[in-house]
TrEMBL record:
Species of origin: Deinococcus aerophilus
Alphabetical list of CDD domains matching this protein: AAT_like, WHTH_GntR
Record family assignment: In the C-terminal section; belongs to the class-I pyridoxal-phosphate-dependent aminotransferase family.
Superkingdom per UniProt: Bacteria
Name assigned to this protein: GntR family transcriptional regulator
Keywords: DNA-binding, Pyridoxal phosphate, Transcription, Transcription regulation
Gene3D superfamilies: Type I PLP-dependent aspartate aminotransferase-like (Major domain), Winged helix-like DNA-binding domain superfamily/Winged helix DNA-binding domain
Keyword Cell membrane: no
Amino acid sequence: MEAVMPDPDGLNGVTLLPALPGEALHTRVARTLRDAVTRGVLSEGSRLPGHRRLAAALGVSRNTVVDAVAGLEAEGYLRVQGRSGTVVGVPAMHASVAAPDAPLPLSAWATRALAGGLFDAGGDYAVDFRVGQPVPELYPEAAWTAALARQAGRAVQSHGAFDPLGPLETRRALAAYLNAERGARVTPEMVMLTGGTQSALDALARVFLEPGRVAAVEDPTYPGARAALAATGAAVRAVAVDDCGLRPGALPPQATVLYLTPGCQYPTTVALPAARRAELIAWARHGNAFILEDDYAADLHHTARPPSVMQGLAPDRVILLGSFSKSLAPVTRSGFLVAPPPVVRVLAGTRPLTDRAPGTLDALALADVLASGAYARHLRRVRQVIAHRQEVLLAALAAGLPEWQAQPARSGLHLYARLPPGLPEQQVLRHAARQGVALTPVAPLAAGVHPPAMLLAFAHLTPETIRAGVRRLT
């Protein structure tokens, strides 16, 4: 309904504004009158009609108008002047509203962050092989829900006593798990809980990088890491990888940090051999640099146990990053970093500027599933499913696209397939799209020239869908 207020007192017509979702009627009336005052439709000192006439004009009850006017009086927009009635108490604001196309006054950090080039995963395809797909059927919904229920009372009883590193119980459970399963050298005091690897990268980048400094990344690499490091204004140097991973001899000597995925290089899936690990640790010690080791795929190994983490070799120079978003569920937002105590103290001191502390309930639930053995049981089941789906994809590619060089991955949720010489990635993508299939190209992940290749995620697809997708590509 759009009612117009009559104009016996020389007032301009006022239209009851359309309702907003969930908006109470008296709030809608107050918003209508406030808008009329600020735009100058009701000028300062002008008198409003009495409550009954105003209610009739707007098609609402008198009590609704009384409530609305009382609120506007409290805010100072209206004044009651005895027998003179209610008058407008403030002048028109006539705020100068910026044109829709006026540029935002963005900081240099925001401009750099927006230039990071992260992927848009939109589109509707019959078969979607793109990386980053959730795998809901593999998540331990029952175990996680039960852990949340068991820990809910304890989270409430914490009474807001936040530790910027996260609950000690969870850090103890993580330290024990990493020492036993990943060959790490961790004490609870070296662990900080995070919202995931991306939030850890952002925190570390802000602490260690600034304009004039240098960060190094693998080439190709995870684009979120490159974007987080570049957003600080530091120069990001891309170091090419080969069939054995990053080449240490190509590292810039002056880099402050190196982002690395040694257990399962992203995206090529190769493991960094021991000799190169030793070279990188020596480089870090010589240059007082830190290696940011992203152990993103370790829990999801399926053909062979991945090598132990580099952090176990050099806990003074390697900062270990991990997340449970792929192995538990993205909604948990449960991640961690392991760093030397001096680094942890700095991160604990700077964290309150952003999010104070991780969520207590999720953290306690994570400790629960780790200590109870529920997580280990879940991984045993998931690894079997993932291994089978990778075998199905490898067999389908060997039969339908033998010219694609696809090697089995030890860990993770995707395959890296090198294309035949002379076959451009864009040609493959266009053909796949016409057939209703989505793939992830490698070129956007690389800063330099890299052999044409495709990534095919498989864990979220049934064997039948995997076979059907490859048939569409042939």
